Amino acid sequence: xxxxxxxxxxxxxxxxxYIKIYRAEGLPRMNTSIMxxxxxxxxxxxxxxxxxxxxxxxxxxxxKTSIQKSSYEPLWNEQIVFTEMFPPLCKRIKIQIxxxxxxxxxxxxxxxxxxxxxxxxx
Length: 122
Hints:
Elements: E1 13-23, H1 34-43, E2 52-58, E3 61-64, E4 75-86, E5 92-99, E6 106-114, H2 115-118
Antiparallel strand pairs: 1-4, 2-3, 2-5, 5-6
């Protein structure tokens, strides 16, 4: 309890936090790798669509949605559930849209939600 910040009660309850992910719009073209250029030159295939998914980081935990193949306007309608003590000691939620790739996933966009802006006082 010595490590708890001022104002945080030493006795905290467990709570579930639900993050609902609906959709994304207007994602950029992402397939600009060397292999994509080789494929285009050899077989004429030019797929520059993204394979997006959403990754959420909250209180040291990670969750993610399913991957929507070849989509600029993916529709998920999924929720990610975190179990954490309430009130949480973290101050924000990190939401990141990523492009799934066989070698290395690439971040398309990142947004942080300040928990103080979406919660009631106390």
